[in-house]
Design brief:
Blueprint lengths: L1 E6 L3 H15 L3 E5 L10 H6 L3 E5 L7 E5 L4 E5 L11 E6 L2 E7 L9 H23 L3 E6 L12 H4 L7 H12 L3 E2 L13 E2 L11 E2 L2 E5 L1 H4 L2 E6 L15 E5 L9
Parallel strand pairs: 1-2, 7-8
Antiparallel strand pairs: 1-14, 2-4, 3-4, 5-6, 6-7, 8-12, 9-12, 10-11, 13-14
Helix pairs in contact: 3-5
The chain binds one DNA strand of 18 nucleotides through loops.
Length: about 260
Amino acid sequence: MKIATWNVNSLKVRLPHVLDWLAATQADVLCLQETKMEDKVFPYAELEAAGYHAAHNGQKTYNGVAILARGTLEDVRCDIPAFADEQKRVLAATVNGVRVVCAYMPNGQAVGSDKYEYKLRWLAALATMLRDDLQRWPQLALLGDYNIAPEDRDVHDPAAWKDQILCSEPERAAFRQFLDLGLADAFRLFEQPAKIYSWWDYRQMGFRLNRGLRIDHILLSKPLAAECRACVIDKAPRKLERPSDHAPVLATLMATLGAESA
DNA sequence: ATGGCTTGAGTGTCAAGA
């Protein structure tokens, strides 16, 4: 079973890339962030034709999350229960017995700003949600754009980014809070080359110079981490014409998962 | 230098991203 996450920065623009990537990788589950569209214009038909069911929690212009899956999506739930939020950033569903949580975590704009305070409150609310969800669904994966570089090795220039947005200690502490729930960073379960990132700025030749950050992650609960065989960041779509500024992250799990799985 | 791209909104040029 292959599960993946990709911030597409507008699904309207990036749908051809998504369809090509699904065909190439044969991913079983793909979480999308920043679809930037309302539910009524979500391309369900095109995805069905490609062999994927989908659920979407979207809004006009900003945010928007989706889960695509070859299997049936069960117990679909939008947003963070008990956290009032206009922004469409969370969607969860159960696929083949695995609870898939797709999240587009707030950017925060600048340390100390109102948006930064919102980010930290939002992250705390998500952790509270996950604590409950892990009780009900021990096989849980949290995939998405975290907008957090967990460690200095996830940053192309740690000195320049020190205490800046995406790298500040309170944000990294929030990330570690997810780990403290028993989740593991799938990427770090394996030996990885240095200087691997998932996002590069569109400006100043950020991608060509590999000035990036690793801010897109797949976290796995213990039963799933034990079944994880690989985790890679696929830079290929970032090299295409009109790319997203993010690359997809893909984790491979053992196929025999969940009571319902075939 | 609060810049430098890209997107969506909407038809001016700005907000937001990270």
